[in-house]
Amino acid sequence: MLFASMPHRGWLLLCCLLAGPAGSQTPPTVKIGHEVKATEGILVGQQEGDAACYLTLRDDAGRQFTERADFEVCIASGKLTGKRVRLAYTPGRVMHEDCQGDPSCRKSRTVALVSSLRLAELPTTVAAPQAAPAGAASFCSASETTVFTCRIGARRVSVCADPASTAQRGYVQYRFGKADGSVPLEMEIPSRRIEPSAAAAGASVVFAAGGSAWLRFFNGDHAYVVYTGIGKWGPRGAIQEKEGLVVERRGKQIASLKCSQAAVSILGPEWFEQVGITARDGDFELPD
Prior knowledge:
By secondary structure, the chain is mainly β. The chain is 6% helix and 43% strand.
């Protein structure tokens, strides 16, 4: 919940822009009080919470981050999902997390809020975050799109796709193996490259103060589900992310492996729509 005492939206603190030098891959930032905020990113999604609206974005390295925003910004940002945007900020007072959504609670704090979004051109000096480096951060090649990848201990899971994939052409494939790539992959599903709509099932889910996305690959009686999510799972309802891999046998979970390092993911409604992937009447519940 935003308080009526929030300063005028016209007070945009862009005077402290800390953009890197030309050709640098460091994202431009702005300093507001003691906070340093990114001013550009790919808008992945948005969700209203109790204390503020939350925007999920992806930077040029493929890392996802979350920013609080004016509720009106979330309402107007739907058409910008999947596009590169420039963010402007203003300080505003929001309900404190200790209130846990209680409208009678008067405890508040001042934070930097996104007050406006507009389209931003993709920098010519930075490649779009399609594929992670082959053999290092992903099992995807330089000519493939890294849909999802994360390290799980000494292993790595990656989901790789043809960048030109649609519901009728291209492919998406689940790959799992030793993280350093020193031995052949332990698993590739499906074993042959078929169109994404036939290779996997998946969906995006929106809920209070967050959302999630999952992608399931089938291999006989077993299924392998990669997922990402953000919600009020932290202490005292703090916003927290979940990322990992779940192994299922005949529809029942038999293993849950959390990412040991931050995942790179483009899972979301725009990609699902592009490649024709649906839930196929299935469901998925994020593990604890």
